[in-house]
Amino acid sequence: MIPIARPNIGEREIELVLDVLNSGMLVQGPKVAALEKAFAAVCGVKYAVATSSGTTALHLALLAHDIGEGDEVITTPFTFIASASSVLFTGAKPVFVDIEEDTFNIDPNLIEAAITPRTKAILPVHLYGYVCDMDAIMDIAERHNLVVIEDACQAVGATYHGKVSGSFGTGTFSLYATKNVMSGEGGMITTNNDDIAEQCKLMRSHGMKVRYYHDMLGYNYRMSDLHAAIGLGQMERLEEFNAARKSNAQFLSEHITSVITPQVKPGYEHVWHQYTIRVDGNRDRDQAVKQLNQAGVGTGIFYPVPVHQQDYIREIVGEYRLPVSEKLAKEVISIPVHPQVSQADLEKIVEEVNRL
Ligand SMILES: Cc1ncc(COP(=O)(O)O)c(C=O)c1O
Fold first, then answer.
1. Does pLDDT of 199 surpass 90?
2. Which residues have a Cβ under 8 Å from the Cβ of 311 and sit 6 or more positions away?
3. Catalytic residue among 46, 179, 290, 348, which?
4. d(C-alpha 301, C-alpha 334), whole Å
5. Cα(19)–Cα(227) distance, rounded to whole angstroms?
6. How far is CA 212 from CA 32, 200, 204, in A?
7. How far is residue 9 from each of residues 21, 86, 187, 274, measured CA to CA in Å?
8. Cα separation, 55 vs 327, whole angstroms
């Protein structure tokens, strides 16, 4: 089976992890600091703050912007649950806005209608490695005095008119094992704002600046140096990884003819965390997945149920009708695009997809 994801671990990651083990400094030491520096450089921001996961990065970013009880945060339902559950952790309420059919991302044209006096933030998600229409989103945020927290968990290194994901508002990233660069588990917050960076640093470690003196309510959301060592090795290969994904995606797009393939608009640099095809409503997606898997092509469904239709979310936020998200959730199939997909694999994937 050609897997839908495969962590790409080289000698360098092993060497860096051994460094940490030999150093005896396992938590939040020099490797975390070096990873933060590398991330800030890639995003072109002043600060990067490492956390234990993308979810905890989102939680801290929201808290640092003072989002909590009584506030509303506008986001997309076509995402991983953490984009919305992190909002719920703070006591605030996620408000869902439908997506664009051609990009899978939040539709900026629908955002303003969802703004109420309680709206505090917009939380766009750069799904599959494709940045949202950030000019439109930043313009709305500015006019309505809203904070922007980017869920860039799938989009490290992706750009929009030359500007890197995670540098528009406060950025959040995941370094989970299957991401474009990973640390096993891990997360990152990116910002140019001194206060936000400071708050995030404090909250990730028990609200503590001086050992055992606690300035505020905090958490243990630290990243270990062992995880950071893996991430650091990966960051050295970010460009190589993203270039391989792009080249694989190009091959797939040039040769797949049987289904709808993802589009990249001018001015966008996609980093292809996922390559997602669509089987239209007249075809049976389950059957297509079965056929691909039986032929040895791994698949992923990201995501089968939009967040607003998850049972527990429905109980909290009530009933929504978001037709584009609901339709695409039934049509999407992600196929392997990661750097370890070989030319022979690509040819096999194309052949099997075109057989659908
Ligand atoms: C869009 C999105 N948001 C948030 C997360 C949460 O990241 P993590 O799994 O590192 O907590 C993920 C990762 O799966 C994600 O894909």
1. yes
2. none
3. 179
4. 6
5. 12
6. 21, 18, 14
7. 17, 29, 18, 19
8. 26
pLDDT at 211 over 90: yes
Residue type (1 letter), 187: G
- CA 51 to chain CA centroid, nearest Å: 14
Question: Cα of 23 to ligand 1 centre, how many Å?
Answer: 30
Instruction: Report the alpha-carbon distance of residue 65 to residue 58 in Å, rounded.
Output: 11
- Per the DSSP assignment, residues forming a β-bridge with 163 are 160
Q: Which of 221, 223, 217, 172 is nearest to 48 (CA)?
A: 172
List, for residues 89-138, the tens digit of each pLDDT value.
Answer: 999 999 999 999 999 999 999 999 999 999 999 999 999 999 999 999 99
Is 265 in the active site?
no
Residue 41 C-alpha to ligand 1 middle, in angstroms? Answer: 22
| Protein residue with least CA distance to atom 8, ligand 1 | 54
What is the rounded distance in angstroms from the CA atom of residue 136 to the CA atom of residue 140? 6
Q: What is the pLDDT of residues 231-254, one digit of tens each?
A: 999 999 999 999 999 999 999 999
CA distances from 269 to 100, 148, 160 (A): 18, 21, 6
The one-character DSSP state at 332 is E
Q: Rounded to an integer, what distance in angstroms lies between the CA atom of residue 142 and that of residue 344?
A: 48
Pocket of ligand 1 (CB under 6 A): 53-55, 79-80, 82-83, 125, 151, 153-154, 174, 176, 187
What is the share, in percent, of the chain residues with pLDDT greater than 90? 97
The model's pTM: 0.98
Q: Determine how many CB atoms are found less than 10 A away from the CB of residue 15.
A: 11
Residues in the chain: 356
